[in-house]
Specification:
Two copies of one chain form a homodimer.
Chain A (H helix, E strand, L loop, with lengths): L33 E9 L8 E10 L5 E11 L5 E14 L4 E8 L3 E10 L2 E11 L6 E12 L2 E10 L5 E10 L2
Antiparallel strand pairs in A: 1-2, 1-10, 2-3, 3-4, 4-5, 5-6, 6-7, 7-8, 8-9, 9-10
Catalytic activity (chains A, B): peroxynitrite = nitrate
GO molecular function, one term (chains A, B): metal ion binding
Enzyme class (chains A, B): isomerase
């Protein structure tokens, strides 16, 4: 027999003008709040050829000075039809009083990454502070990420990767639109 | 102007008998799938007194050999009323062919932890493999966790912590019921 349970008393907000009021430190990243959907391309020397993918991103908050972050991608075939589930990420973006961002991002591939950076205007640049790897994870040394709000409803994303013996180089780029 | 976007083509399953079919490696942890709600107590020498909290846990999967994990807690006052949002966690539990579990768990407090362990019968024991800390995070050295399905609809949770100069010791324990 299962129990009915109360609704969570502190649901996340997904818009700056929605309860709960965003923490003041979130000001530089308020434009990210919400859900995003779009397309991207990726490649890496150790992968067999480039690939196209679709992606959902969600940023929310609960009134404290961090964003909840989740990303889900799926590969697309030559006809742009879904092929299979692909990269997933979740974590937290902590905003510091001096405007720095500390992003904790984990992936089911066994990678837990702590990135640091800053939100400058409409761009957030992040680079690796520390990477922790699960015992069976592939070797990832470092990554660089750039998120840019090119307008209120368009988010571009570029991701460079240094892994599996390869130097830092382009891995993914995507253009996402705010979901209605 | 925002775009309507297609539904995600690979939604997570929250029950063993629901699509998508769970990966065979998830067999030892199928009992965790779903949402859980319950109460817990916590304390630590560096905290001012013990505390009561309520917690939601969610385990889901997308057909691959890992669970998506999310936990949200909120503190309760002396009258058992919600006081404020508290600990949050998200991450992934990777199941290995030999039955080992690799759990990646991040917290908005700036902690990214990789734990390893095993599911034995109805109990999953995890201990720290590696901890990565955000530059401004408090110092956490290691943790130990035990999740036990005492019956199909009841999950107990014990969490020991070695942090901020204190030796490994009890930190949290909770009893959760499956949400209807």
């Amino acid at each position: 027999m299962v129990d009915p349970a109360p609704e969570h008393p502190y649901p996340d907000g997904h818009r700056p003008d929605e309860a709960p009021a965003p923490h003041a430190l979130l000001e530089p990243v308020l434009g990210l709040l919400g859900s995003w959907y779009g397309r991207g391309e990726g490649g890496y020397p150790t992968l067999t050829g480039d690939f196209g993918y679709a992606q959902e991103l969600t940023f929310s908050h609960d009134g404290r000075p961090f964003l909840r972050y989740e990303a889900r991608a799926w590969l697309l075939d030559a006809d742009d039809a879904p092929l299979r589930p692909s990269a997933r990420e979740c974590g937290w973006w902590r905003l510091q009083p001096d405007g720095r961002v500390e992003a904790l991002i984990t992936q089911p591939t066994g990678i837990a990454e702590i990135m640091v950076g800053r939100a400058t205007g409409n761009t957030i640049d992040l680079s690796t502070h520390e990477v922790a790897l699960a015992p069976t994870a592939k070797k990832v040394n470092a990554t660089r990420r750039r998120y840019t709000l090119t307008d209120d409803d368009t988010l571009t994303f570029h991701h460079d990767l240094e892994a599996v013996g390869q130097p830092m180089q382009h891995h993914l780029s995507a253009r996402l639109r705010r979901r209605g």
